[in-house]
C-alpha cells in the first residue's frame, strides 16, 4: 500500500486543495445557516416588539377613554347636571364628547389609535335575571333567585327586536327561561320551559350550561333555540354587568330597550328618542322625562331609570404598521370621584366603530 509520502507532490497538492475546498464549503454552509437563523430571530423579535407596541398603543387608548370619563364627571359636577347621553346638544354639541363621536389619534404616518366609548347602562343587563339572596348553599354556591321583573323585560325585549329589514321573528321555542337556566347552577327547568344540561348534552358536540354569570355575547349563541337573526339583532341591546345593575339610562337606551323597560309600544319609544335628540338629552328625570306625552297614563316606575351611568365600554383599535390590535374594555366609573376601574379586557374581537370619527391633533 502506498503511503502519503510516496504520493507524488503534484497529487498531494490536489488532495490538499480538495480538503481546503471542503473546509471552505462547510464553513460557508455554517455561516449561511447561522445568518438565516439570526435573520429569522431578528424578524421574530421585531414582530414581537411591534405587536407589543401595538398592545401598549391600545392600552394608551384605554387610558385616554378613562381620562375622558373622569373629566366628563368633573364637568357635570361643575354644571350641576349629572347626566350622560350620546346625542349632540344644540347649546353645547361637545358636552358629552365621549358619547357623541369616535376619536382617531395619529401617532405617525403608519401608526395611530382610534376608538369610541359606549354607555353599557343604555342596554339590558343579562345578569340581572338572577339576584343574590345572600349566603351559600351546601355545595358552596351563592343562593340566588329569579328576578321576575327582569325576566319580563327580557321577554319584551325579545319580542321587540328588529333589523334594517323589519321585525325579527322570535322562534316560538326560544323561551326567556332558557337564559335563566343557563345562569343558575341547578338542573331544575324554570317553569318547565327552560333548558338544562339534559338539552345541551344531546347536541353535537355536547356541552353544559354555564352555571354562572354571563361574561360575553358569544355565550348567548349557545342558548337553546337561539338563531343567527335573533343573536345579531340582540347584540346592540344587551350588556353583561354585575347582577345588581338594573337601572337603565334613558338618555342612551335604544328603542327596543325603552320598549322593554317602560313596557310601551314602538311608536312611543321612537317618540322618546326623537325628543331626546331634539333637546340634546334629558336633564331631569322627574320634570323632563317622566312628563313626556309618550309616557302619559303608563304609571312608569322611576327606580329602574337613571340619567347618569357608571358602566361603559371602550372600543379601541391600534394600528402600528402591519400590526393591528383590537381591544374591548369594560370600565366602571365611580359616581363620587370619577375614578375608573377596568372590569374586563377582551383582545382580538372584530368590531366596527359606529360613531362619526373626529381626528385629534397631536
TrEMBL record:
Domain T2SS protein K first SAM-like, first and last residues per copy: 122-242
Residues in T2SS protein K second SAM-like domain copies: 248-305
Signal peptide: none
Intracellular or extracellular location(s): Cell inner membrane
Keywords: Cell inner membrane, Cell membrane, Membrane, Protein transport, Transmembrane, Transmembrane helix, Transport
A Pfam family this chain is assigned to: T2SSK_1st
Membership in a protein family: Belongs to the GSP K family.
Protein name: Type II secretion system protein K
Gene from which this protein is expressed: xcpX
Amino acid at each position: 500500500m502506498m503511503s502519503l509520502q510516496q504520493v507524488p507532490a503534484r497529487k498531494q497538492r490536489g488532495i490538499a486543495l480538495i480538503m481546503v475546498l471542503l473546509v471552505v464549503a462547510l464553513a460557508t454552509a455554517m455561516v449561511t445557516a447561522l445568518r438565516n437563523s439570526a435573520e429569522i430571530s431578528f424578524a421574530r423579535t421585531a414582530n414581537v416588539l411591534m405587536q407589543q407596541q401595538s398592545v401598549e398603543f391600545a392600552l394608551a387608548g384605554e387610558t385616554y377613554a378613562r381620562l375622558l370619563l373622569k373629566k366628563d364627571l368633573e364637568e357635570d359636577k361643575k354644571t350641576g347636571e349629572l347626566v350622560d347621553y350620546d346625542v349632540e346638544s344644540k347649546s353645547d354639541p361637545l358636552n358629552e364628547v365621549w358619547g357623541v363621536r369616535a376619536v382617531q389619534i395619529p401617532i405617525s404616518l403608519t401608526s395611530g389609535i382610534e376608538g369610541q366609548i359606549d354607555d353599557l347602562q343604555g342596554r339590558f343587563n343579562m345578569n340581572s335575571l338572577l339576584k343574590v339572596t345572600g349566603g351559600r348553599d351546601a355545595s358552596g354556591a351563592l343562593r340566588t333567585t329569579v328576578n321576575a321583573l327582569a325576566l319580563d323585560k327580557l321577554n319584551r325585549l325579545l319580542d321587540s327586536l328588529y333589523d334594517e329589514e323589519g321585525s325579527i321573528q322570535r322562534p316560538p321555542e326560544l323561551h326567556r327561561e332558557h337564559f335563566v337556566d343557563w345562569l343558575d347552577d341547578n338542573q331544575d327547568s324554570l317553569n318547565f320551559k327552560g333548558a338544562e344540561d339534559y338539552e345541551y348534552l344531546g347536541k353535537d358536540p355536547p356541552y353544559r350550561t354555564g352555571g354562572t354569570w354571563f361574561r360575553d355575547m358569544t355565550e348567548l349563541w349557545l342558548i337553546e333555540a337561539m338563531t343567527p337573526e335573533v343573536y345579531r339583532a340582540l347584540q346592540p341591546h344587551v350588556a353583561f354587568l354585575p347582577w345588581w345593575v338594573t337601572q337603565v339610562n334613558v338618555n342612551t337606551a335604544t328603542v327596543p330597550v325603552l320598549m322593554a323597560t317602560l313596557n310601551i309600544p314602538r311608536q312611543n319609544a321612537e317618540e322618546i328618542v326623537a325628543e331626546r335628540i331634539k333637546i340634546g338629552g334629558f336633564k331631569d328625570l322627574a320634570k323632563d322625562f317622566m312628563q313626556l306625552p309618550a309616557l302619559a297614563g303608563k304609571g312608569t316606575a322611576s327606580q329602574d331609570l337613571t340619567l347618569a351611568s357608571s358602566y361603559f365600554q371602550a372600543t379601541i383599535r391600534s394600528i402600528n404598521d402591519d400590526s393591528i390590535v383590537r381591544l374591548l374594555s369594560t370600565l366602571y366609573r365611580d359616581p363620587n370621584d370619577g375614578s375608573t376601574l377596568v372590569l374586563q379586557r377582551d383582545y382580538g374581537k372584530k368590531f366596527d366603530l359606529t360613531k362619526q370619527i373626529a381626528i385629534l391633533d397631536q
